[in-house]
Amino acid sequence: MDRLLNDFTGTVRRAVDDYDMILEGDRVAVGVSGGKDSMLLLLALSHLRRFYPRRFTLEAVTVELGFEGMDFTPVKELCEKLEVPYTCLRTDIKEVVFDVRKEENPCSLCAKMRRGAINDLIRQRGVNKLALGHHFDDAVETFMMSLLFEGRLSCFRPVTYLDRSGVTQIRPLIYAGEQKIANLAAQLEIPVVENPCPQDKTSKRYEIKQLLKGMSAEYPDMKSKIFGAMQRMPLPGWAPKENWRLNR
Question: Is 238 a domain residue?
Fold first, then answer.
């Protein structure tokens, strides 16, 4: 198990190094939804801080949306085991988006409200970096969504500075594929909090995920080529250092 975590942390470190995600003295908060991506990111960054040459502190934050039946005890217990401070912020985002506003396309408003809540929280705590669990497949899907639905070549950046909050978002999982994350989470028996959101399998992202899944059956290296094109173009913010390596 130690070897598996070491290998995965190495993948995370390559992304961190290629994009200078973590600097000396940074205070890093992991945005933990309770899903496998953010839970594994928390575990990997906790492991990384033991030997990374640039010293940084780590904590975890959760924005609770208000869905019934969500129990974040597994997140709290993992944080206690890792000796990582944990803050869970309760909000009424679910009520506003689904019950009051009754949004037909709720994902955009929900994401905006979550970003605002978490940025306010970590700014109050003096945190300057927010680590998010977006991975390799998320990047490719976001690029394809932008291309097909908006007619633009665009994607979130590995490192994004937010002027209004003074917080820098980092995405250390961009070299880790979704299947690799799922396999490792199962092997390490990482507890997860299930997402009860009714939009989970009806969103535009889910449509693109299914499209890419079907196309990848015939062209197995398609997503790697798309990701490579994003770096070689490069998309704004996507040019890595010269010696970048991709290990999914």
Answer: no
pLDDT one digit per residue (tens) for the chain, 248 residues: 688 999 999 999 999 999 999 999 999 999 999 999 999 999 999 999 999 999 999 999 999 887 877 889 999 999 999 999 999 998 888 888 887 777 777 777 888 888 889 888 998 899 999 999 999 999 999 999 999 999 999 999 999 999 888 899 999 999 999 999 999 999 999 988 887 777 666 578 889 999 999 999 999 999 999 999 999 999 999 999 864 444 44
Could you give the CA distance from residue 69 to residue 71 in angstroms, rounded to a whole number?
6
- On whether the CB atoms of residues 54 and 24 are closer than 8 A, the answer is yes
Distance CA 31, CA 25 (A): 19
Does 242 map to a domain?
no
Q: Is 195 a domain residue?
A: yes
Task: With 0.85 as the threshold, say if the pTM is over it.
Answer: yes
Look up the domain containing 58 and give its range: 2-232
Q: Which residues contact 35 (CB under 8 A, 6 or more apart)?
A: 133, 192, 193, 195
Q: Residue 248 domain-assigned?
A: no
Task: Locate 236 and state its tokens.
Answer: 């704004």
